[in-house]
Prior knowledge:
Jelly Rolls; mainly beta; seven-stranded antiparallel sheet; globular; six-stranded antiparallel sheet; Pirin family protein; Pirin; Pirin_N_dom; 2 domains
Amino acid sequence: MTNPILRVEPLGFPWATVDPFLFCAYHDDHYPRGNGQLAPAVSLAGREIGSDFSRKDGFSMYHGDTVPGFPAHPHRGFETVTIVRRGLIDHSDSLGASARFGRGDVQWVTAGKGIVHSEMFPLLSEDEDNPLELFQIWLNLPAKNKMAEPHFTMLWNGDIPRQVVRDAAGRATEIAVVAGALGDIQPPAPPPESWAAQPEADVAIWTLRMEPGAQWSLPPARGEGTRRTLYFFKGADAVVGGQAVKAPCAIELRADLEVPIVAGGSESEFLLLQGRPIAEPVAQYGPFVMNTQAEIMQAMTDYRRTQFGGWPFGAADPVHGHEPKRFAKYPDGRVEEPQEA
Length: 341
């Protein structure tokens, strides 16, 4: 039997990725109660405010100085896919769009030729803690799409298909399909200029939650040359492709093989990232990802000159009030709210 595992590595921060993915950050912050100003109701002494990744007391302020999060910052040349499992994020951007999303929602932003956005983590509850758990995934754009018009969209929790499969013993595996079909299950369409929108790209973003002892087999990828990584981020141990592994770890798999997965004695959770490589040169400087250093220099010049359209909000870290209601306001003024089951 051919071994489907190419390598196993421990997880750091951020998680290592392979082409067409650039970056994957997993944030699992145990924020305390809010103080009425959507900020932590605890002392922030000992933190490097403005650049706090300390995880002191189980959470970080990141680049926020009052509300945790990432105030206005630019991107060019790639996409961000933000999957929020717990908590809420307030988004604002230079297109004039804004949103409050979370609790299973996914935001997909094509930066293209340039966008500025903020991602703030408001602590709405003053009566209990405000945990926040999310993935932010950077998906590269091919050269022909790097200067595409920026695009913002929401994939609400209720629109993301989920399949529950039970093994012979009745133990459940739940698969959430954010991108890339799983059998007959089709997720919402990705943005039109995305690498994920190209049929030959074979991009998939799935999350798996397995009950203790559950068994499920990851089907082979459809595309030739596809690469895939399975991130085992919650649980204790599992058997993947016949090999015992311990969490947290990244498992690079052969994409042309079916891979049996058996959860260990506790609930196990995985993130799958797969896609056919774009296979183009990558030049990166912070939030700009292009193909050459000359293009990086041009991105920096363009941002200094145009601010990628300017910032239409009165603060670099806008938040959207004290009501937990989720919404998206698009650049054309259209307001959308999730339809809950």
